[in-house]
Amino acid sequence: ASQGSRAGPWQLGRGVPGRSLSPWGGPSPVTVPPPQVVARFNRLRQEQRGLASKAAELELELNEHSLVIETLREVDPGRKCFRMVGGILVERTVKEVLPALENNREQISKIIETLNQQLQAKGRELNEFREKHNIRLVGEDDPKQPPKEG
After folding, report:
1. Rounded CA gap, 37 and 43, in Å?
2. Strand 27-31 versus strand 19-21 pairing type
């Protein structure tokens, strides 16, 4: 028996606006978030990923600075070394470069701390948005249903 023009289980068009239809034509209990909600959720996730990526990048840079600083502390302060400044390699002494590197490391550390705070705030914002709009990711269990026994 053909269902003819009846909407399938994953199509919108009949029943309650914003709800999907069950195979029997009535509204199913699962709401389909409007496209704006999905777009905003994805945008928040992308912002969170961007913050995490930048923090990880700066962590690597911080580790590089620490490695160079530890290496330079063990050599003669009058020894010449080379440093990249604005894309140009300049010759300096260790005693000139070391304070600048330590200052850079301190600044990077502060930026990482700020990024981590922003990352936590973005995570809270994302979770609040998920709860407000009852968004579940694919493969995620419904927290309101008891766990399946198996």
Report:
1. 10
2. antiparallel
**pLDDT tens for residues 89-136?**
999 999 999 999 999 999 999 999 999 999 999 999 999 999 999 888
Residue 122 lies in a domain: yes
Let me know if residue 141 belongs to a domain: no
Helices within the chain (DSSP H only)? 35-73, 94-132
CA dihedral 58, 61, 66, 71 (to 10 degrees): 180
Assigned token pair, 134: 């009852």
- 113: which 2 tokens? 């701390």
Instruction: Give a yes or no: residue 6 inside a domain.
Output: no
CA distances from residue 145 to 102, 127, 142 in whole angstroms, order as listed = 54, 19, 6
Do residues 80 and 93 lie in contact, with contact meaning Cβ atoms separated by under 8 Å? Answer: yes
Instruction: Count structural domains, the chain.
Output: 1
CATH, residue 85: 1.10.287.370
Please answer whether residues 122 and 55 qualify as being in contact, where contact means their C-beta atoms are separated by less than 8 angstroms.
Answer: no
Under DSSP, the state recorded for 10 is: T
Q: What is the length of the chain?
A: 150
